[in-house]
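note to self: the first set is below, dont mix up w the second
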Amino acid sequence: MSDFGFYFRLGWEHIMSIDALDHLLFVWVLAAIYLLRDWRQVLVLVTAFTIGHSITLALSTLNVVEVPSSWTEFLIPCTIVFTAASNLFRRHFEPRYLRINYVLALFFGLIHGLGFANTLRFMLVKGQSLGWGLFGFNVGLEAGQVVVVSVVLLLSWLLVQRLRVPRREWVLFVSAAVFSLALKMALERLP
């Protein structure tokens, strides 16, 4: 069980650390278009991201998929730029217009999962099962994402539903801020 706790903490820190700014920005911009009443949809969304993240994390850790880290580090902020840009041009927030986000979250999770594989590969103790470490890591990651999403949804509730800030303005504010930070990251990480 102590191994689970170790990997849980790694997953938690993977999103909750300031060093994980790209991950935090992605979850923020992904959740920015939803309201508190949409919490179930957002949980499915971040779980889709975690599933994609897990797949490539496992495949990359096992050396089945190999992508140069310079490209991975560049592509991660590109996924954030794309998500933020998508939000900036979004006019409708009804569920039928947001279904594509599940596919994007899963696909972008595949890209983000490549980013932590080298670290996990070196941390696995010789002879230790990848499954247990990956499970603990993903539970920690998911827990961290739920906390971040909760903060975003509570802020949207406060601003949009209580203080009557127009929803579109909230989405534009968050998305524009995240877009600019992620674009700067992407340009700094050009391979």
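second set (the one i keep forgetting abt)
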Amino acid sequence: MAPRVLCVVGPTASGKTKMAVALARRLNGEVVSVDSMQIYRGMTIGTAAPTAEEMEGVPHHMIAVADPAEQWSAARFCQAADACIQDILSRGKLPVLAGGTGLYLDALIRGDDFAPGCQGGQTRLRLQQELRELGPREMLRRLEAVDPETAARLHLRDEKRILRALEVYEETGEPMSRRDRRGREKPDRYQAVYIGLSFRDRADLRERIDRRVDEMVRRGLLQEVQALLAGGLPRDATALQAIGYKQFLAVADGTATADQAVEEVKLRSRQYAKRQLTWLRRNPAIHWIYWDKEPDFPAALQNATDFLTAHGLG
């Protein structure tokens, strides 16, 4: 039987960190962050990475493990995070996966076998050049010739996906559709039990997000961006394209005011939360706990504990 893991999921600002820590303490667990931006050092404020105080002595993994100048693919993230999960299991503890990057979480649970190819790789660069020269229609026509199933799902606007499917075929000699089908037929690497957190009223979630952004600014989000730039981080680094960093980079450069940046960060964060919920609601296995306007954490923790006990994790 596949090893068991606990996943604490939900939109941004829903309380995942606090719940994950509390459940890890109760269940002899360690937390693995599944957040595509918390991996970067020097980006604690804008990514809402847990502080030492918030960790409450519970070991956390996959936080501040990468230089912000690096660009991590889903494949690289999953390889590193999976090594953490295996280490936790080998010590007889429960991996508690917490975070909002749904693509990464799903790939970790399934144990996806990522096809070769990467940003900046030789094949990718050549295909990008051919796209510029020949246009998306010709690239999609090429894909139709080697992988009609994938091509049928894509639109001319899906340029990145078209190039990725062509890259997979050129690197492996196998259509992406066949690889995906084989992956779906393979049993999951981990047996996951899910706790989901959100607000009963969407307006309360929006208000919570706005308050979190205000707190990030109060704690020094602009100064964090300035420190990254002072450390030599290029302005076009992937890390600086994240919500919060991109907007306050404009403040640092003098092309936006702090007030403009705050409003933009709030808007982008609310939109991101909506996308997260859309992704998560496709998973019928999630046990949802909904907060009222003022969250009752002890009641929610008991709710989660009762559910996990019923599923053999209590």
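remember for set 2: The CA atoms of residues 250 and 256 lie 5 Å apart.
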